[in-house]
Every structure is written in structure tokens, then in C-alpha cells.
Amino acid sequence: MTTINTSSIYRITGLASGLDIDQMVTDLMKAQRAPLDKLMQKKQIWQWQQEDYRTINTSLLNLRNEVFNLKLQGTFQVKKAASSDESIVTATAGATAAATTYQVKVNQLATVATNASAQAIANDSFDPSQTLVSQQSNFIHNSDNDFGWDSTTHEFSFTINGQTFSFDGDTASLNLIIATVNANKAAGVSMFYDPSMKKVGIATLKTGDNNPGQKEIQISGNFLTNVLQINVDYEQGGTDATFEINGLAGMTSHTNSYTVNGVTFNFKGADANKYVTVTVSNDIDAVVNTIKDFVNKYNETLAAINAELKEECYPDYLPLTDEQIQEGKLTDKQIDQWQEKARSGLLKGDSLLSSAVSSIRTVMSSIVQGVTGQVTVTAGTQKITTVANSLSVIGITTGTWEEEGKLYLDETRLREALQSNPDAVMELFTRTTDAAGNPITDSKQKGLAVQLYDAINNAMSRITSQAGSAGSLYDQSYISRMIRDMDRQISDMEKRLQDLEDRYYRQFTAMEQAIAQMNTQSMWLAQQFAGGGGQ
Predict the structure, then answer these.
(1) 421 near 389, Cβ under 8 Å?
(2) Are 128 and 199 in contact, with CB atoms under 8 Å apart?
(3) Which domain CATH number covers 201?
(4) Neighbours of 287 (CB within 10 A)
(5) In terms of residue numbers, what domain contains 290?
(6) Which of 331, 361, 435, 534 is most buried, judged by most C-beta within 10 A?
(7) d(CA 229, CA 499)
(8) How many CA atoms lie within 13 A of 408 on its CB side?
């Protein structure tokens, strides 16, 4: 027997009657809770459906990303460049590059401008990590005039390419000065100290003769010229790369790179007596790999949707309520198995998914009207030339009816089509304008990737209207509105049930109080009778 306080109501549970009031109320409420349990189970089913819809939408999104690549003409215009001697020239080709051959001769590489200390600047005791003042005597040129500083403050400055650097010899070391110069990209130089030679080297960050007729490293300041012994007249000036492309001699570049006709030539070495052949061609491998990625993603997505459409449904298995789980009648494994069956087949035969599959498969099996590009491929034992107006022409076909639209790729045939006429394959996928350059309005005349992209977008939009998306701040989808409505119903029902439970407890409490009062009166009467009998 216990006395508990719930919902701000003082409950006397069986103190006078000896009844298990808690259990009796629980049993009474169990029947009353049945509608609420059914509503919560219904809500759980909607939530599971929403999750399944959103999972499919994610798969469609990933497929759409692959299709987007096939919408781009640049995907089919990828070029590659091969060099006969990569120790002298390498090359990369952009989508606009023409498939052709270049003869390249590199006479001279572009170099940076350099300078260095004319002689050793310090003795063997010199430590570049210590302050200049502490190391002053270890510099070979070490007078205050050499440093260009005031003998009291030890402050000094110098300039490199118009950038002024100021330091205090009491706190600055040679290492700090070098690090500060290197960090200032506007100065355009890098410095280093070689402890074995006791010299400082300096070089421009950029190659080439960027300052014709002048020094590339403009310096001033006693510290640079006297202490570090850097003489501007000793600079080894930066040189431009000089080269020849297809007989056009005298070409120059400040860098060891030059771009022409969409091809970037990178110069690695120089040999004035050697021509290097650079061949630019269509990158068939890149296009094939892109199409293979699409086919794989398409099959993966279609399989996921078909699995949902065919998944077995178990209507007798409803989601378990919290009370059913907490009862302890089922093991954890049994609970998992039950819940797995409860959420199985929630989208079986779903009209939205069926429509999405149908529209996608219709596009993939369609013929693009109006295309004229032809490809030459092998059919059986013969070579045939035909208009590239469907996927089957370029080696992409569907399997048997039982495989529900699965695609198969004949890579050999695809390569043949790309090698014979890559523009025709590109048109099959990307076509959006007619021969006159006018936009196409008839969807059946648009490229397959364009049609498929639109079909996927439409399917995703319909599913989003049904199930929403996880990232929405306020989801107005059909299922989300249903769930919010059920949440309101659940809240109202829980309040009514709480009120009913409180009423039951009040009634039992009143009964307990009445019994207790009767017991008290009975005891009083018994005492009275007992007292009278004793006189």
C-alpha cells in the first residue's frame, strides 16, 4: 500500500480499503488510452513514410548531380595533351583547345633575379638567432655607420623594392629580419642565410625580366649594402623564357608557362636544338568515365526506388507503443524484428515513386528528335554509320523486363562513337538549341540529359510536396501538416486522459475517505459497547 502525489492531487491508494488502487486505475485507463495509442501508431507510420520519401529524394538528388554533368557541353569537350619529351615541355588543354599537334622548341627558361653577399659577413662565432647588438662584434663590417643606426637607440631601416623595413638592433636578430622580409609579399623577394658560407642570398619571387633596363631587386640602406654586403650591381637579372611554337620564333614569357588556343605549355627545360611534339586530342577516357559514373548511379537509384515499391508489407504489425516496449514481454531482438516489419512496405506500390520511375525510364528509352550527328560503330561483324539519336546507338541499353530498367554499358561501342564523332554524342545528351541556334521548346527534341534532369526535378518536387525536406525551416508538406495535426490531437487526448485519471483517483480517494470514516465510527461503537458491557 502506498500514498503518492500526482498531478497536484493528493491520492490515498488503498490505505483504508486494502485495494490496489493504482493497478485498478491503470486497468481502467488502458481501455481509455486505446484511441490515443492508435493515433500515436498512425503518427509513427507517417513519420517512417516521410523518412523513406526523403531517403529516395536524396538518392534522386545524387543522380541529378551526375546528370547535370552530362548536360554540360564541356563534359564532352575535355581535351588532353601529350608531350614527346616531358623533361622539356608538358601541356594541359582546355575544352576550347583544338585537336591538333604543336612543335615546340624551348631556347631559354625564365629565371628569377638573384643577388647575394659579395663576401662572408661574419666570423665563426656569429649566431643569427641572437640580437644584432649582441652579435655586432662578430660581423666583419660592424661599425655603427655600417649598420646605419644611432649608437644609443640602435634603430635602423632599409628598403627593398619600395617596401621599408624598420628594426631595433637591441631586439632584432638576422633570422627575424629575414623572416620579416619573407613575410612581406609586396617586396617580392625571399632571403636566406647560409651559415657555412656566412652569406645572405636574395631572389625575386617572380621569374622573368619584369623591369626591362632596371634591376629587379631595388635595395637601399646601410645594413643591406654594408653589413650584408649586397651590391645591387652584382644582381643576376631575371630572364624571360624564349621559345618557338609551330615555327613562330622569338616568343617570350615572363614565366615558364604560356597559353595559346586553349593549350597551356609548361616549360621544364631548355634545348635550342630540339623540337618537342605536343599532341592535343579528345580525352575519350574522361568522357567514358563520366558516363560510367552516371550509369552506375542511375542503376543504384532505380534499384533503391524499385525496392521500396516492392517491399513486403505487414499490416498486422503496427508500431510498438512505449508502454508495449516497457512491459518487458519482448526481448530487444524481438522488438527490433517487430519494428522492422512494422515499417516495411510503407511505400509499396506508391503512386509518386511509380510515376517517378516511369518518367525516368521513358526518357532513357526515348529517341531525340531533330538530331543529325552520325557516329560509326560496330554492329555484329560490320561497321555502320547511324544517327546518334538514342542511348542504344552509343552502347547503353536496358536489360530484361525483370531487371526493371537497369542499364548496361557497352564501353567498346561507346568509345567507337566518341572517337568517330564526339560532337554527335554531345548533342545526344546536351541539345537545347536547333541548327539555327534557336532555343528548343519541344522537350522531345532536347538532349537526353536535359530531359532526364527535368524529369528528376519534377519527381523530387512532387516528393518534397508530399514529405518535405529535412532542411526546411517550416515544412508545409502534406505529411508534415498531417503530423502537426496529429500532434495537436495527441496533446488534446493526453489532457483529457489526464483529467479522467485524476477523476478516477478523486473518486477512489473519496471512497477511501468514506471507508476510513466508517472504520473510525465502527471502532468508536465497538469501544462504546465494550465499555457498557463491563459495568
Answers:
(1) no
(2) no
(3) 3.30.70
(4) 21
(5) 37-74+286-467
(6) 361
(7) 96
(8) 7
462 in Cβ contact with 352 (< 8 Å): yes
Scanning the structure block, which residue is given the C-alpha cell 503518492?
4
Give start and end residues of each alpha helix (H) in 126-205: 132-135, 144-147, 174-183
Q: Which long-range contacts (CB under 8 A, 24 or more apart) does 175-178 make?
A: 175/128, 175/129
What cell does 239 get? 630572364
The Cα 513–Cα 13 span in angstroms is: 10
Residues 368, 439, single domain; the answer is yes
C-alpha cell at 315: 499490416
**Which amino acid type is present at position 437?**
G
- Grid coordinates representing 114 are 638573384
Domain presence at residue 524: no
| pTM as predicted | 0.76
Angle between helices 448-467 and 351-364 (to 10 degrees): 170
Cα–Cα nearest to 29, from 240, 323, 461: 323
Assess whether 62 and 100 both reside in one domain. Answer: no
Q: Does residue 287 contact residue 75 with C-beta atoms inside 8 Å?
A: yes
Start-end of H helices in 311-379:
322-326, 332-342, 351-364
Place of cell 609551330: 246
- In sequence order, the 6+-apart residues with CB closer than 8 A to the CB of 75 are 69, 287, 290, 426
Residue 529, C-alpha cell as written in the block: 459497547
- At residue 378's C-alpha, the angle toward residues 372 and 381, to 5°, is 140
CA distance 478 to 109: 67
Blockwise average pLDDT, block size 10, the chain, 535 residues: 42 60 74 84 94 95 96 94 98 93 98 97 97 97 94 95 96 98 97 97 96 92 97 93 96 97 97 97 96 97 96 92 84 92 94 96 95 93 94 94 92 96 96 92 95 97 92 84 92 85 79 78 80 54
Q: b/e string for 75-89 if b means 16 or more Cβ within 10 A?
A: bbbbbbbebebeebb
Question: Is residue 445 situated within a structural domain?
Answer: yes
431: exposed, middle or buried (C-beta count within 10 Å: 0-12, 13-18, 19+)? buried
